[in-house]
C-alpha cells in the first residue's frame, strides 16, 4: 500500500498545492493528515473539499489548532474523508489507528482507555489477518526520540511511547514540533517519522 502523509500545514496554500500535485502524480491509496491543517480552524472546509475531490480515502485527526468537534462536523460533509481520532480504519492488509490533539503534555491519561480499545481491536484483527500491517498516527510525538527534542529536552508524550513499546506498530507518524520535521527514529521495531508539511510517501 502506498501512503502519503503530511502534517502541520497551518493553512499554507502554496505548500498545500504542492502536496496536491504530488498526490495527483503518485496516486497513493491512502492520505494521512495528522493535524494542524489550519490556523485555528480557518478555511477548514476549503482544505477538506480540495482533498475530497481527489477521491482517495483521507484519514485525519485534529491538532492543537483545531478541535475534535470542529473536525468531526466538517468531515461528515465529505465522503472520502474520515476523522480517525480514537478510531481505526482498515483497508487491505493495513489497519490505521488515529489519535489527535495534545502535544504539550508529558503524560496523557485520556489516551489510556483509548489505548485499551485499540489493543482489543488490534488483537481481534490479528486473528483475522496473518500479515496485518499497523500504522499508528498521532498529532503529538512520543517521548524521548529524535522527533520530540526541543532545546536539548524531550517534550513528547510518555503515554504514547508506552503504547508503541508494547504493541510495536510497523509505522508511527507524528508531528506538532516543526523543528523536527522530516526526522526519523525507532522505538523497538517501530519506525517513527515526522512527515512535516512537505509530506512523505510510505510503502507498506
How would you portray this structure in words?
- With 204 residues, this protein is α/β, with parallel strands linked by helices.
- It has a single domain, classed as Metallo-dependent phosphatases (Purple Acid Phosphatase, chain A, domain 2).
- Helices cover 29% and strands 25% of the residues.
- It has helices at residues 13-26, 44-52, 68-75, 111-128, 158-167, and strands at residues 2-6, 30-33, 58-60, 81-83, 87-91, 94-99, 133-138, 149-150, 153-154, 171-173, 184-187, 190-193, 200-203.
- A six-stranded mixed β-sheet has the order 5-6-7-10-12-11. It has a five-stranded mixed β-sheet with strand order 4-3-2-1-13.
- A hairpin with a 2-residue loop joins strand 11 and strand 12.
- The mean pLDDT is 95.
Strand order in the sheet with the most strands: 5-6-7-10-12-11
| CATH class type | Alpha Beta
SSE arrangement, N to C? EHEHEHEEEHEEEHEEEE
Percentage of residues in strands? 25-35%
- Describe the global form: globular
State the CATH superfamily name.
Metallo-dependent phosphatases
Q: How many structural domains? A: 1
CATH topology: Purple Acid Phosphatase, chain A, domain 2
Radius of gyration based on Cα positions: 16 Å
Largest sheet: 6 strands, mixed
Please give the alpha-carbon distance between the first and last residues: 5 Å
Give the uncertain stretches in residue-range form: none
By DSSP (H or I, 4+ residues per run), the number of helices equals 5
Number of strands: 13
Structural class comes to alpha/beta
CATH architecture: 4-Layer Sandwich
Mean pLDDT rating? 95
Work out the helicity level: 25-40%
